[in-house]
Amino acid sequence: MADRDKIQILKDALYEAARDHGSDQRLFTQRDLLDMQVIPQDNIGLLMQVIQILCDEKLFVGNTTASGLSWRWRSREDAKKYTSLPNSEIMMVYAMVDEAGADGIWNRTIKNKLNMADSLMKHCIKYLEQKGYIASMKNVEHPNKKMYIKANLRPSDRATGGPWFTEGELDTAFINELQEIVFDFIKQKSTYTSHGGGAGVPGVGAQGGGAQQREKNPKKGVVQGTIPHSEDISKGTKRSAGEISNDDTAAPAPAKKTRPGKPQLLPLPAGYKSYPTVSDIAKFIHHAGITNNTTLSEADIQQLVDVLYYDGLVEPVKVNGRKGYRVTRIPKQDPRTCNQRRLDHDPTKGGIVTSFMGVEPSASGLMEAPCGRCPVYDMCEEGGPVSPSNCVYFRRWLDGDEVQEQVISI
Amino acid sequence: MAVIKEKAECCTLLVDELYGQLPARVYATLFQRGKLSVRLISQFSKLSARQVKNGLCVLQQHNLLFYSVDANSGEAEYSVNHEYAYNLVRTGKILEMVDNSYGPAGRDVMQNLLLLGQTRISDLVAAYQAKINEVNNDDAWLNDKKPELAIKSKAQLNSVLCRLIEAELIDVIHSKTFQSAHEIEKQVHREVMDVYFSNGIKGTKAKIEFEQRVAEGLRKVREESKTLKRKLAQNGGASKRRKLAVGNETNGAPEEEEDLDPALDPRQVIRINYEKCIVELRSRRLVQYVNETLGETTGYVYGQLLKQLTKNISRCKSDPLIDALTPEEKVTPSVTTNEILDKVKTSIDLTLGIGKIPSKSISKSAAERLTPLAPKDKIPFMNQDDSDDDEEDGDYSDSDEEMDTKKENGDAPVARMSRPEQLRQHLLLLAEGHPGFVRHCGEDEWTVDFKPLMENLRATELDSIIEQTSGRQGLRLIRILRTKGKLGEQALQSLSLMRKVDLQQKMLEMRLVGFAHTQEVPRDNKADPKKSIFLWYCDTEQAYSSLIAKCYATMVHCLQVLEVRRQKDKDVLSLAKRTNVKGKEKDMMRDESYARFAKFLKDERLLMAEMMRIDDTLALLQDY
Fold this sequence. Notes:
By secondary structure, chain A is α+β, with helices and mostly antiparallel strands. Chain A has helices at residues 2-21, 30-35, 44-56, 76-84, 88-100, 107-114, 118-131, 157-160, 172-190, 208-216, 230-235, 241-249, 278-288, 298-310, 338-344, 365-368, 392-409; strands at residues 28-29, 60-65, 68-73, 105-106, 134-137, 147-150, 165-166, 169-170, 191-195, 263-267, 314-319, 322-327.
């Protein structure tokens, strides 16, 4: 019958036209399909027939939206999978899994939505799994739910938990390592290392006069000792920032505040423009190639930096609308990197170090007293079973160190 | 007058520690029962009226009481002045502070005032005179090692007193000193009513006027204690010159300087003004904080700035009743760079403490940006940045480029700055970013917004306490809750990047300590707990108040432990008190006894020091 052939041709033409006009996520309304100029004379009846055939062949998927019916196309391979399924139950289950996409779907949801008998659904799922059409997956948000996903899809970030999860478990070791790296990076970029070194520049005093003199003839004794820098200086402007700062601060630094020879971190002047931003950090991480099998987006790094901020280790500084980060409590920071600190740390010297990032919290009187950490603080009262007069913690606190002292004196 | 139990206990124990058991018992009774007459005190405390009077006398002398005369019965009724009682614990800090800024002479006077309580100037002068005479007559030529006196002459005493009065650290007692704030307020109310509103207050307009008049009256009362200061200011021609000598009095300030001071009215009764002392202590604390966050040189600069700025600030927290209605007073004082520069010691190297980088990488415009207006009262802890400063940024970056190119032409990569410029660098650093130590309020003008700054510092203190109790992860969770508000466990988990088990354990831990709380939100009327949503949140105000209570309680415990130790070593201590032993304990006592004695002294020092350190936290949380 010519009519049927015609519809066949129109069907293929419409399918191809739809494919040309958008991805398999795009919804086409009736108007959209007519506007493709495939159906002659905007014949709605004909269009209906064509769409019906396409839907039967699973090449089109119908959708109801607020504005009415619409359709999206499905690839021929996928359609073939549908048509190859033996019965409509299996097809429906497969359709549910297919709809859920990369997030996967819980088997209870399938059951409830399709109102299907348990055994029948199990049979369907088993069939589909055997065929290799769907696979079971794990979702970090609901680790106890049995979920299914189309076999050829990778579970979405929401389901796997993003880069911070490995096999459904939060990878704390990885996070911690990465945090240390980010922290070190920010520390290095947001502070100035003053080497309170011994290289004596005589008489670089505090007075403004001295500074001006230096400005006039910079060749004299400004540069720090060991390596002869004079050539560099004669070249003038070509020096790198690091070198320059060295010769200027190294000398005055030991004058008062620092013990000589010990590098110390100093804050940078106000208005410093290059505090590292999140994108700087992301670039650094990317180029360092630390995470070669996971790619970290800027948003991921932002999450990491936010955690550092919540930990009180870094703080945002806004300069000209550019939000960079710097470490907090700069003068107290250890100039070594976290890793170095870990290597240098001597476990026999006591003190359990929980983190090598940042500084110990500043001491507060309350926490130093035994009461600050007392487990029975709430019931401690003079006259009660636990009271300050019979407090073991106070006794240990006051007498404990004396016992040690005596040992030492012997 | 509501006082938490821990504070009442703490104050009573402090009085006990310093002035003995009798006053302490009277004080405890007053704390328990409120305002009482002598008769009632003796009834409640089971002390005889004579004893009660003795106790009250001591307390009154040290300004630890308020009293008012009941109009009907004609009996005086007493109540506690708990602020002053608590301030006793700050004695050491105040003395140290005075020692630092006014030299040992100032400290000596201050110490005597602390010991004596309120004192008539003539009495103080007489006491010092007696001491000076004693040393001078005491065969000075026989005894080489005569004790070095901090105050060497009456004139010097006078001058020191003038300094302290000018600094408001000492003020004058007047008729209303012994009335509680509430009492004074009532009285002023009555007066205003009698004078201006004999027909009653009608309408909102009259109400406002009434409030203004009351505030005025209260202010007048408050100003009364400053009479001596005003008098000094009136013939203050000399004060300008004198300021140069401040701090150098140890090396014997020139006699003539001292002569310039007007003699103080010997009939005036003076006492220590704790309010101003606390202002000074606050400055010290701020400097400490800057030392930690930005470095010592910057901290020093900040100290000088605060010194200038707080000269005319008499109290840390303004009274809502008195100060609310005076906009002209609200204009916060500011200092200029040059004023600070004048005070910075020449030995300080201002190039220290800030990293040196080429000026190319500094945005001048961003650093120098002025913020002429004080920040509005924002909700504390909610995300504060990102809000208002974005629109301006565009303009700035343009001009910035220009500046940079200009800079590049002159080929000094590291700008070598003049001293004022070096100083400015420190000030700019202070002004930049969180927590706003300084506000750059005008070209070369600087001011400090104490209220938001202290709020920030309070949060920092709380943070460090949380970090010490619950670790860094605990701090992380609390800070997330603070910025984001109430959160469910899922959200908290994804923000904190913590394992579910760890998170739950940590939150539970903090729930027990009282840092975090839960809220249950039922989904439907049945309120099935299985279906309810549970939200975590933190109540910072509550955390503060529980911390404050804990601070007081810990101090109480320290004092109690000290008392226990004292009882334990009673025999040794009584031995050490004997006049023939006193001063040469080591030689006179047996080794074993001496060891115990030394140990006791060590414990006492430790416990006292601990109390002072707790007070640091406490003061920050409630007084600064």
